[in-house]
Amino acid sequence: MTDPETPLERLGVAMARMQDHGRAALPKARLVDVLAALDAPRRSSRPFLAAFVATAAAVGIIALLLLRGREDGSAVVAGEPAAASVAMMGAYVNAPADEELVIEFASGGELRLHPGGARVERADADEARVALVSGTATVTVPVDLATPWQVSAGPFTVSCATSTFTIAWRPEEASFEVQVKQGGITVLGPMAGETHALEMGQSLRMDLHDTAAVPPSQPAPSPPVPTAVLPTASEAPPPELEPPRRTPRSPKPEAARSIAPTPLPPPRPRPNLHGNSSRSLAAIATPSPRPNASASPTS
């Protein structure tokens, strides 16, 4: 006879045994056996339920972490475990000279260092930002990726949405170079307002030792004042001087009298050479008397 598997079967077996012994009352020992038979499946199922709940919780936590990491975005070195992406954010990574280091982004795109050193500053759905400390890197941004990219190298910043380009920065030489292989990029230089737009097949090379560059945080120098417009003090002509103005003075009364012309005496008559000078002078000096009309003529 096979062993009973269900609680009801066990209970039936126990009752049959008691009937076989012919006992009218249920002994204490048998009652304990019956209760143990009823409680046995419950006790045996508890470890199974606990194991199932623990497994389900672990699976849920892992799925939540994976989904959250996918939403927030991450960057991980190809071939490394996914847990390394958390420690990689903001950390410096370096590629040896004899091999290539590939950094993959969860939002799409990759950065290949060959050789060189870089720092991942941001990697999420809104933006991917990498700082190339030194060396050479190739950036690949897929066509269907909506996340903008920014790669800084020294005082230069390269921005793109869909492109493949190679960027190089040698800080010891202050040399910058970028070459576009696909798509287009925008390069922001160190000079204020300096922007270069490059398309596929174009490249840009700049050496800061030969070019007087101003960091973006400093204002651009003001243009020099042309010397041809403003002459120096030695070349400037002397200013024109106005002649001194004389203030007229009012003459004194005595001076006015002396300045006034003196009336000339009447001209003297010339002497008559014919002997009638006295008569002529008398005629000139004394007018002839008029005859008196009231007096009667003398006889």
Would you give an account of this structure?
With 299 residues, this protein is of the alpha+beta class. Among the domains are: 7-68; 76-207, Jelly Rolls (Sandwich), CATH 2.60.120.1440. It is 27% helix and 27% strand. The protein has five helices and twelve strands. Strands 1, 2, 3, 4, 5, 6, 7, 8, 9, 10, 11 and 12 form a twelve-stranded mixed beta sheet that branches. Helix 1 (7-21) runs antiparallel to helix 2. The chain is elongated. The protein starts with 6 loop residues before the first helix and ends in a 14-residue tail after the last helix. The model is unreliable at 23-29, 65-73, 81-86, 212-220, 275-286 and 293-299 (pLDDT under 50).
Q: Which SSEs are present, and which pair or pack?
A:
Layout: H1 7-21, H2 28-72, E1 75-77, H3 84-88, E2 92-95, E3 101-105, E4 110-123, E5 128-141, E6 149-153, E7 156-160, E8 163-170, E9 175-183, E10 185-188, E11 195-198, E12 203-207, H4 253-259, H5 277-285
Parallel strand pairs: 5-6
Antiparallel strand pairs: 1-3, 2-4, 3-4, 4-5, 5-8, 6-7, 7-10, 8-9, 9-12, 10-11
